[in-house]
Write a sequence for this structure.
């Protein structure tokens, strides 16, 4: 048992983050009302303990209770891993993952679908939120400064990449250009074709020698 | 600091009990404990955060997790104080459920009631001033009873456990969250130093009441250790009793079922 109760610490942090995000959501949190007192239990193999998300009074409560409520219409449990969740998001291959036993869903699947829909639809207007704290003008200037810095960083990153390529290819000659690799590949192919031809000729000569030896014998 | 030997199945002399390290008449303890909590009620939450560095919130979360509470349950938060557990339970049991916040101390109950109302938690919470030794509820009423950092202040703990057993429904569970005995000697020494040298000074500084926090440290040392409390619960009729040490045994969560 850890000194700081990491399970409870994680749940506490998740609860604060989720509710803050929901409070800042530009689409509002009315959709949560449909899930009142419903619980989604996510058991990720990497974590080793379940994380329950329960909706109550337009808030999401997060805990790590191990209580399993298989008979409950208000409960849905998903057993999976983080990597599988990423696949699910990318390929929408729910049935396939269940068949491969990478994902197991027990209870009311609609709860999981509704939770996923709410989380996907969270949209936060960061500029408006920032303006509440530092004012419109300061926000505008901060955003412009942010864009300027981002552009500079991107430019610098591209420049560094180009310079590094130059240094590796031309100065240190540790890496070759794509053209050189293509050229080399073409030469290898030509040598391969010539070798093939030579092999065929040798085979033909061998057959001719064998035929001559048979006639003389 | 010499710590009196832990006795804990209450004092051998029938008429006396412990108030911290002092031996007092059983009839006096409740009013002496009441004095402590009347004094600290207003600063209770701030002091809890300061004394435990906020970890008491995680201990309480652990208790909620272990309770297995579900919508519609009836919960008794005994010695519920300022209502930390009640707040969470209220949200989890929903409008079909019910949470009773009970405390022997009216000041604590008032602070708890104000705090929960400020949070907008009103619909499924009742407030009852009650003594844990003789609970004013019908038998087989609650699905869950919790007592967090309260049992050590009860004069007759065995009687309180029997009373809790009586008000639990068959299949119901009791969760006792309480200070206990640290598992490692080094932690025990550090904890002793903190409790007797720093805690009363923080109490003096913040709550203007060093004595109450001196009592807190002493009452923790006089509380039954993990195994003794488990046996006391079994003697009261609880089954499948178990406990989990939290933060190295500084706190333990005991759990028992009524079947």
């Amino acid at each position: 048992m850890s000194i700081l109760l990491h399970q409870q610490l994680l749940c506490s942090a998740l609860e604060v983050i989720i509710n803050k995000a929901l409070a800042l959501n530009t689409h509002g949190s009315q959709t949560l009302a449909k899930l009142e007192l419903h619980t989604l239990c996510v058991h990720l193999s990497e974590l080793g303990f379940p994380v329950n998300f329960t909706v109550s009074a337009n808030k999401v409560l997060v805990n790590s209770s191990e209580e399993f409520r298989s008979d409950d219409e208000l409960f849905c449990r998903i057993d999976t891993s983080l990597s599988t969740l990423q696949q699910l998001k990318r390929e929408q291959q729910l049935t396939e993952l269940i068949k491969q036993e990478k994902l197991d869903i027990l209870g009311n699947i609609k709860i999981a679908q509704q939770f996923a829909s709410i989380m996907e639809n969270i949209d936060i207007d960061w500029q408006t939120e920032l303006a509440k704290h530092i004012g419109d003008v300061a926000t505008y200037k901060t955003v412009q400064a942010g864009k300027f810095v981002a552009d500079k960083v991107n430019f610098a990153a591209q420049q560094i990449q180009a310079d590094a390529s130059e240094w590796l290819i031309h100065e240190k000659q540790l890496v070759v250009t794509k053209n050189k690799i293509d050229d080399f590949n073409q030469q290898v192919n030509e040598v391969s074709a010539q070798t093939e031809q030579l092999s065929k000729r040798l085979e033909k000569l061998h057959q001719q020698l064998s035929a001559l030896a048979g006639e003389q014998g | 600091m010499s710590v009196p030997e832990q006795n804990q199945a209450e004092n051998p002399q029938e008429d006396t009990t412990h108030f911290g390290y002092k031996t007092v008449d059983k009839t006096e303890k409740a009013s002496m404990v009441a004095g402590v909590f009347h004094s600290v009620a207003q600063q209770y939450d701030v002091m809890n955060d300061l004394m435990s560095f906020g970890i008491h919130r995680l201990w309480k979360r652990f208790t909620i997790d272990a309770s297995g509470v579900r919508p519609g349950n009836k919960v008794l938060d005994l010695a519920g104080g300022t209502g930390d557990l009640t707040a969470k339970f209220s949200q989890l049991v929903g409008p079909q459920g019910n949470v009773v916040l009970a405390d022997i101390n009216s000041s604590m109950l008032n602070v708890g009631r104000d705090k929960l109302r400020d949070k907008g938690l009103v619909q499924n919470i009742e407030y009852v001033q009650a003594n844990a030794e003789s609970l004013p509820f019908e038998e087989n009423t609650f699905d869950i009873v919790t007592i967090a950092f309260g049992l050590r202040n009860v004069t007759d703990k065995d009687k309180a456990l029997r009373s809790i057993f009586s008000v639990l429904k068959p299949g119901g569970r009791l969760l006792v969250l309480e200070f206990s005995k640290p598992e490692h000697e080094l932690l025990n020494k550090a904890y002793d130093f903190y409790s007797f040298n720093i805690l009363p000074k923080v109490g003096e500084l913040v709550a203007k009441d060093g004595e109450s926090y001196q009592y807190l440290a002493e009452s923790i040392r006089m509380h039954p250790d993990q195994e003794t409390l488990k046996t006391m619960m079994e003697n009261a009729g609880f089954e499948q009793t178990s406990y989990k040490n939290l933060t190295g045994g500084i706190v333990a969560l005991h759990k028992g079922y009524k079947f």
Notes: The first strand of chain A starts at residue 39 and ends at 44. Residues 43 and 49 of chain A are 6 Å apart (CA to CA). Chain A has a mean pLDDT of 85.
